[in-house]
Write a structure and sequence with these properties.
Length: 478
């Protein structure tokens, strides 16, 4: 938003800003924040930053956790959800050195920035553009109880027939959506249309171009907002902003929004499909009119890298136990490792509708929005660059093209095709075995990857120890 402090100060004065709010990203991809009165925002804030304890963000050990946060003026935006007039900006973390501070190599924004620097150093391209699809659920209410003798949750969706009242039921009768029949549902069944429109308009106020929004397949308030392609570092910041808007706009309306991959059993899950392309000197790197799907050999090698490392990538792009409840057959979520044209069951899909050479791209369909977007986009880029560097041909490796429904294969056919991990521990083991490509050019440090694997394994173990209501129902009489 701003290039200089003077520009920022002028805006603050003209708009009556009283508080500056600094957003920082923790290791899991959540925003944390600290705020200061506007008169304390000076040149020294940009030069020396604001101190914080990195160990509470999941990064550094306590004995070496003092860091500073340096604001990035270009990320500033007005907060529509604070009562006091507030200007928000994110920024970067630095380690406090003896003579000068230096970039903290575990901090998410720093990792992604280093990945794009490595891209430029490679000479392959000088820019990566991506466009995520944001899928999420809006629920009318949530009840969650976790006690030693009581473990349950209830997500209420008035627009769905899963509620006990059924079609046209309840005190205020309304049209409802049948099971798995919500895709592009229209008014009056699409009861969240106005709320979704307000989300889209608020997102656009922040300079993020919304491509479209619509109701998704899931009957229980499943939504999608898709944005236009954007430079990858900017899109990672945008991803955080979009999730912030969606959650706050829903709460303002008395609802709760979640990007959880599989909140409702039997309904479609929430993915975050990532469309991507590379450019060099402003020209597309991925286009070739004669290539499969209109893609260049470089693009196919990039796909080859994604597919070779798909299993280890999942530990970063799908980092929760719930992620793997979505990656099952029958819900338009990928389970096998392969690529194809316009095939939504393939993990890499080439959209047939994209004809413009400048926009020629493909999408990776397994990620979900519980990922840390900075790590996610950096890991995707590093896998693709490894494919280009080593000329990994996806067809030669039996990864496709699979121009048929991968869900309808026989057991014999399935045995010949590699699969994505079926659980988080499986993905974490894959990352342990396959992570050298992430460390090229000093992008991901081995220390960060070890912390990530340990942290996610511990989270999984904690959840696995909790008895499940379905277990009680199934085994109580044994």
């Amino acid at each position: 938003m701003f290039r200089t402090l003077s520009e920022c100060k002028k805006f603050i004065e003209e708009n009556g800003i009283e508080i500056i709010d600094f957003k920082m990203v923790d290791i899991d991809g959540r925003w944390r924040h600290v705020s200061i009165p506007v008169e304390r925002f000076t040149e020294n804030t940009l030069k020396y930053g604001i101190g914080f304890d990195g160990s509470n963000y999941g990064f550094a050990p306590v004995e070496n956790s003092d860091m500073v946060y340096i604001p990035d003026l270009s990320t500033a935006f007005l907060d529509s959800y604070a009562e006091v007039k507030t200007l928000v900006m994110t920024g970067d973390a630095k380690v406090i050195g003896k003579d000068s501070n230096y970039d903290f190599d575990q901090y998410p924004r720093n990792v992604l920035r280093r990945a794009t620097e490595y891209l430029k150093e490679s000479g392959i391209a000088d820019e990566m553009l991506i466009g995520p699809e944001f899928e999420f659920n809006i629920f009318d209410n949530l009840r969650l109880r976790i006690r030693p003798n009581l473990i349950n949750y209830e997500l209420t969706s008035d627009e769905s027939t899963v509620n006990e009242d059924g079609i046209f039921g309840g005190e205020s009768p309304k049209y409802q959506i049948q099971h798995k029949a919500g895709y592009h549902a229209d008014l009056p069944s699409d009861s969240f249309y106005d709320l979704r429109s307000r989300m889209a308009l608020e997102i656009q106020k922040q300079g993020i171009k919304v491509k479209y929004h619509h109701h998704e397949v899931g009957a229980c308030g499943q939504q999608e907002i898709e944005v236009e392609l954007c430079e990858v570092n900017k899109m990672a910041d945008n991803t955080m902003n979009i999730k912030y808007v969606v959650k706050n706009e829903a709460q303002r309306d008395g609802k709760i929004a979640t990007f959880l991959p599989k909140p409702v059993y039997g309904e479609a899950g929430n993915g975050m499909h990532v469309h991507m392309l590379l450019k060099k000197d402003g020209k597309p790197v991925f286009y070739d009119a004669e290539g499969y799907g209109g893609l260049s050999q470089t693009a196919l090698w990039f796909i080859g890298g994604l597919l070779k490392h798909a299993r280890s990538l999942c530990a970063i792009t799908n980092p929760t136990s719930n992620s793997y409840r979505r990656l099952v057959p029958g819900f338009e979520a990928p389970v096998t490792i392969g690529y194809a044209m316009a095939n939504r069951s393939a993990v890499v899909r080439i959209p047939a509708y994209v004809k413009n050479p400048d926009e020629k791209r493909f999408e990776l369909r397994n990620p979900d929005a519980t990922t840390n977007p900075y790590y996610c986009y950096a890991a995707i880029l590093m896998a693709g660059l490894d494919g280009i560097r080593n000329r990994i041909d996806p067809k030669a490796n039996n990864w496709g093209p699979f121009d048929f429904n991968l869900y309808n294969l026989s057991d014999e056919e399935k045995s010949r095709i590699q699969s994505l991990p079926a659980s988080l521990p499986e993905a974490l083991q894959a990352l342990k075995d396959d992570h050298e490509y992430l460390m090229q050019g000093g992008v991901f440090s081995e220390r960060l990857l070890n912390i990530w694997i340990s942290r996610k394994a511990k989270e999984y173990e904690e959840i696995e120890r909790i008895p499940h209501p379905a277990e009680i129902a199934k085994y109580l009489d044994l």
